Amino acid sequence: MYRILYFLFFLSYSRVICFSFSNSTKLCPHHQNVALLRLKQTFSVDVSASFAKTDTWKEDTDCCSWDGVTCNRVTSLVIGLDLSCSGLYGTIHSNSSLFLLPHLRRLNLAFNDFNKSSISAKFGQFRRMTHLNLSFSGFSGVIAPEISHLSNLVSLDLSIYSGLGLETSSFIALTQNLTKLQKLHLRGINVSSILPISLLNLSSLKSMDLSSCQLHGRFPDDDLQLPNLKVLKLKGNHDLSGNFPKFNESNSILLLDLSSTNFSGELPSSISILKSLESLDLSHCNFSGSIPLVLGKLTQITYLDLSRNQFDGEISNVFNRFRKVSVLDISSNSFRGQFIASLDNLTELSFLDLSNNKLEGVIPSHVKELSSLSSVHLSNNLFNGTIPSWLFSLPSLIELDLSHNKLNGHIDEFQSPSLESIDLSNNELDGPVPSSIFELVNLTYLQLSSNNLGGIVETDMFMNLENLVYLDLSYNILTLSNYNHSNCALPSLETLLLSSCDISEFPRFLCSQELLAFLDLSNNKIYGQLPKWAWNVGTETLSYLNLSQNMLTRFERFPWRIMQYLDLHSNLLQGPLPSLICEMSYIEVLDFSNNNLSGLIPQCLGNFRILTSMEINWKGLYYDL
After folding, report:
1. Which residues are in coiled coils (predicted)?
2. pLDDT of residue 485
3. Which among 391, 386, 389, 388 is positioned nearest to 401, based on CA atoms?
């Protein structure tokens, strides 16, 4: 009996609940449905867009179910619109139906192309707006001052590459009215008339990005009164000067980017209070002096870039304290001393750049536990000794640059299959080219020039390197052999530099190179005239050709349409200059010196508009007057 009563009660209660729920579920108001459909018709959609959210916007369907649309759960009014990355193209005029959605709290139109639309005064009517993102969407002109009326804004992102400006009065109004603002990103917007001190009036800010905003003048030397600030980006303001900003212990900043500015001076010892700092970019500035030891107290650092400054002094043990660092770049300074001690403490390291300093000594041989290291740049230092084996066996290595040092000995076999770029040029390395190089199928860049590498390199060894774009084996004591007349093709090759490689004939594999732009076969033993097929190499792409210091006797065709540099000096060329040389209308440098040319000089040589250098032995040559 009780079970029956319970069942009847449950059934009736369920009906009431379902009836109440169905009555409380409202559809998107008709006028907002119409406004959104009109907005959709305003734009065309780039067919290459990965996902166009407006594709789901259909008549006779509830707009609250459309992609990118958010409605209030009670009123069903549209309160959020996210059309970011939708491939939209068109213009947002001041009478756009977008402005018929007054209840919007969140609007994201980022990464579209609105065809130089203005950020008009109509945007100021969204008084309920808390999040506005119009970044990188092709807006241009002066931002309407009404943007400062959005007093409820928590996040404002108007970033762009160029074309937008914000007047001083508008910025001042913005800092006075938007007291709730936590995120202000104006990257690329021209705010050149704004004084740097006015940046400090938004005490609620957590993230400020004013990169490439044409800021100038001196950044305030006073303590930053932005207690909530986590992110500060001022990069790319080349005329913005000052010392390293002063923070107090209440700051818990996570990211500081002052790169490509005119900040200068020494790093203060007070930098040690930034114990929460995870990313510090001071590259391309004018900082100087030695690195304070207290920098090592920033143990949360994952990204540290001090490159292209005027830092000097010994590399201390400060850098091996950054146990969490992933990117470490101190290149292009004047650091001295030995390689970083205890490098294997940096187990999270993925990018290391110590290039263009005055570091010396040997590279440590016992390093391990660097399984994430993908890029190593140690070029333009004074390192000596042999290359340690651990550098050839890093499992994640993609880039290795040890060029312009004093390294010697053999090159070990590579055990890093992911390698894409190798530069060991301008050292004192000897022995053969390791065979493992020819198995690195991802290799795009190989630079081994100016060493003492020897042995014979067969052209068919390169058959597996289909991704190779750049190859330089010049100035060694090796011999490049093509005796088997291999038709090996390097389909991606654009630059081939084989000067002083003991080559006796034009390499046959060049007949298949369709992208070749730079070719240097100088200082070899190529004799006679070029084979007929050679005139078809790079006819549409070759801009640089150096065949100097060979034994060529004839050179009668010039089929390269965009040739800019042609060097044939110190050959055995005889007879007149071919008149076909006149077809090279883009030529800038022309060298036929130290040959035995004679006869009539083509008149066009005096008419080349962009020719900057011409070297010819005039003896035996004459003009037709």
Report:
1. none
2. 53
3. 391
Q: Which CATH code of 3.80.10.10, 1.10.3720.10, 3.90.1150.10, 3.50.50.60 fits the domain covering 41-158?
A: 3.80.10.10
pLDDT number for residue 418: 96
495 close to 510: Cβ distance less than 8 angstroms: no
The pair of structure tokens assigned to 131 is 């999040």
> What is the predicted pLDDT for the residue at 23?
34
Contact call for residues 191 and 210 (beta carbons, < 8 A): yes
147-184 per-position pLDDT tens digit: 999 999 999 999 999 899 999 999 999 999 999 999 99
Instruction: Name, in order, each residue with C-beta under 8 angstroms of 23's C-beta and a sequence gap of 6 or more.
Output: none
Domain 195-321 has CATH 3.80.10.10: yes
For 173-191, give the secondary structure using H, E and C: HHHHHCCCCCEEECCCCEC
Q: Give me the residues of the chain with pLDDT under 50, please.
A: 1-24, 625
Strands 382-385 and 358-362: parallel
pLDDT of residue 342: 82
What 3-state DSSP class applies to 572?
coil
pLDDT at 503: 93
What dihedral angle (degrees, nearest 10) is formed by the CA atoms of 72, 75, 78, 80? -20
Residue of 585, 579, 584, 574 lying closest to 619 (CA atoms): 574
| pLDDT (0 to 100) of residue 401 | 99
Distance CA 216, CA 475 (A): 48
Please choose, from the candidates 49, 112, 103, 113, the residue with its C-alpha nearest in 3D space to the C-alpha of residue 81. Answer: 103
Note the pLDDT of residue 124. Answer: 95
Number of CB atoms found within 10 A of residue 197's CB:
12
DSSP string computed for 503-535: --S--GGGGG-SS--EEE--SS--EEE--GGGG
Instruction: Say if CB 515 and CB 494 are below 8 A apart.
Output: yes
